[in-house]
Amino acid sequence: MATHTVQLKLFADLRPFMPPACKAVAIAPGTTVGDLLRRIGLPVEKAKLIFIDGAQADLSASLQGGERIGIFPPVGGG
């Protein structure tokens, strides 16, 4: 099966889950966002806002390669 890459950016306290010196992550086409997060060890319940190419998405979104993915944790405030 061919592999493709996606650009993954983790924000705030999710940054430590990003593999060191990694700007692109290899995926098989059809991998979901949830699959990708589990693969890098990020608990899916920590991902509250997911964006793919600037559009809001969810954990079940299927990836084909070439996408830019941004993951944000829950936002709190006082």
Protein described:
The protein has 78 residues and is mostly beta strands. The chain has a single domain, classed as Ubiquitin-like (UB roll) (Roll), CATH 3.10.20. It contains one helix and five strands, in the order ββαβββ. It has one helix at 33-39, and strands at residues 4-10, 24-27, 49-52, 55-57, 68-72. Strand 3 and strand 4 (55-57) form a beta hairpin. The mean pLDDT is 93.
Keywords:
single chain; 78 residues; mainly beta; Ubiquitin-like (UB roll)
Strand content: 25-35%
Largest beta sheet: strand ordering:
2-1-5-3-4
Could you describe the largest sheet, including whether it forms a barrel? 5 strands, mixed
Give the integer mean of the pLDDT values: 93
Q: What is the CATH level 1 assignment?
A: Alpha Beta
What does the radius of gyration come to? 12 Å
SS content category: mainly beta
CATH architecture: Roll
Distance between the termini: 48 Å
The beta-strand count equals 5
Order of helices and strands: EEHEEE
Helix percentage? under 10%
Work out the count of structural domains: 1
Instruction: Indicate the low-confidence ranges by residue numbers.
Output: none
CATH topology: Ubiquitin-like (UB roll)
